[in-house]
Amino acid sequence: MRSLFEADGPLARHIDGYAPRTVQADMAEAVASALQEHSTLVVEAGTGTGKTFAYLVPALLAGRRVVISTGTLNLQDQLFHRDLPRVRAALERPLRVSLLKGRGNYVCRHRLHKALQQPAARHELTPLHELQNWVQKTESGEWQESGVVSDDDPLLPRVTSTAENCLGSRCEDFEQCFVVKARRNAQTADVLVINHHLLFADFVLKEEGFGEILPGAEAVIVDEAHQLPEIAARFFGSAVSTRQLHSLVQDSLAEAVALGDVPDLKQAASDLAEATAGLEACFADLKVRERLDIFRQRGRTEKVLTNVQETLQVLAQQLKALAERTPDLAACAARSVDLASQLEGLLAADTPDRIAWVESIGRGGSLRMTPIRVDGDFQRLRDAHGGAWIFTSATLAAGQDFSHFCGQLGLQEARTLRLESPFDFERQARLYLPQGLPDPNDANYTGGVVQTVLPLIEASGGGVFVLCTSHRALREIAERLRVELTAPEMPLLVQGRSSRRELLDAFTRSGNGVLVGTASFWEGVDVRGPALRVVIIDRLPFAALGDPVFEARLDAIRREGGDPFMEYQLPQAIMALRQGAGRLIRDPQDQGLLVLCDPRLRSRPYGRRILASLPPMPVVKDLAEARAWLNRIQKAA
Description:
Blueprint: H1 10-14, H2 22-37, E1 40-45, H3 51-61, E2 66-70, H4 73-91, E3 97-99, H5 109-117, H6 125-135, H7 156-159, H8 178-187, E4 191-195, H9 196-204, E5 219-222, H10 228-235, E6 238-241, H11 242-259, H12 263-283, E7 290-291, H13 292-295, H14 301-322, H15 327-347, E8 354-361, E9 364-371, H16 375-385, E10 388-393, H17 403-409, E11 415-419, H18 425-428, E12 429-432, H19 445-460, E13 464-467, H20 471-484, E14 492-494, H21 500-510, E15 514-517, E16 534-537, H22 548-559, H23 564-581, E17 592-596, H24 600-603, H25 606-612, E18 619-620, H26 623-636
Parallel strand pairs: 1-10, 1-11, 2-4, 2-5, 3-4, 5-10, 12-17, 12-18, 13-15, 13-16, 14-15, 16-17
Antiparallel strand pairs: 6-9, 7-8, 8-9
Helix pairs in contact: 2-3, 3-4, 5-6, 9-10, 11-12, 11-15, 12-14, 14-15, 19-20, 19-26, 22-23
């Protein structure tokens, strides 16, 4: 295995720019052993390890059916269209490979046909006809390739399917269905690339008419595995949203209009629409996530929820009575029964192992039930499929300790391996811990952060990420920087004013931008070269108290006699901080300055543990030394 990664190996011979890395070969050996032994491996591979090749090479050589799950669709596409073909060609392994995404990424022929028959507005006809023409030519059916609709297009939900509204094998377009085709290809693949949501959906959602993906897989490799606990909690819970209710109403009304002789169905759907609008009004003033029992005490909320329950049950009865008339009515009937059951469960009292809560989304909101722990459910998923399981990410440990990540998913028996980044942080990076800032709870803290970092931004000439731990801090910092930074050569880019992709493109093109962002810019962002030379983090990313799921997890640890801060809050903050700090050095030639503004790094005992978890970069002692380092970087560029 190691010889494949050497300077005269197949990767170096066939892949432009490939350079051997000892840690990459170390990881590949560990992955190969886990695949051979059908065991569980957890690998933290620091930035620059080349972990994708480190698991792809042994996966392609294992002689087993392997499922690879990634964190996002972008990573999924990159893995399938770029990395996998290069490694497969280098190893000369003519294996069958397949890419499978969630059903929402594929145009649904049936729903497209219905939308053409009943467009919501005349201006929809042109894009609908363009989609219809494209569908006749496409092989994949992935709407992103069409160039007709975007991910925020209101037309998109009407031409794609969900697990709730899909007709499955009852659909007249079943044999031509893009989802069916993709799933059939997936079932015959030697290597299958999916994403985390699909990994859980395959286990949790029993989608009628579709075969499962994982049975028969002898290994599952999970990349960006640090995202798994939160995704697991979402999938092992339950939810009813105003969007789901409105979607059921719209599809039921469309069927009622098409049939023309079912006035009671039309009335029942209209009544649920009115009840759902009332529920949307209850969400209008909700600013943060809230426990469901508290939400129910607000104004008329309890009465509104009772009305939604009653009108949903009436609609379900009407739909069940007519279900045999069309496949679409049968699907609506099944959806209504399922939603009624989910809502009944959500409105029941909390259990010790689950928490019911609500959140505002768009014009409406969602009622949710979330398990406080997911280790048992996740163990059931693993037991159902057996084989080898490999979990990898750049951040899975708090320092040298994997117990937090492994405990969340029930992986206590796993072998763990931590590989340091091959980058030379001693040479490439510096860490600055500003002094004199007030306590982060002080009302003047964010203003103090801006005044502290302004000289650094000016000295750097831009090329700065300002990563915030809250939207409130983002707004305040962005507004202050807007006033202070007036040089046109340093454009200020703020999350929320454009899409994430547009902001990153503009930042990279400018070479001197100042980008202010929150959570979505802390990970999965790869800006190489001098365009990014300073990363500023406003405060330690401790999760905010008040979130109902977070509070329930802390309470559960207390009930078991544990220390919520040391066992949960601190490890979570360390992993999040390492993700943000990891944006700085992405290439062997990168140089940069990491600025951590939070004074608790020096004043609290846990600060030493946090600093010890970061890459080993020298600490500059004051502003003058930080500026000197930035001047050195600029001259080198």
